[in-house]
Amino acid sequence: MMLSPPLRFMGLVKVHLALGMVRLRLFVPGFRLRLAEA
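and the corresponding structure tokens:
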């Protein structure tokens, strides 16, 4: 029971970081296209 909350927190952190990486991968190409157009 004592290990459950930290493990849950680590899982949430990993998911949050994964979503952040996906957002960056989708956002960076669009940003580069905007810079190239300007």
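(Above: one complete record from the training split.) The two ends are 56 Å apart (CA to CA).
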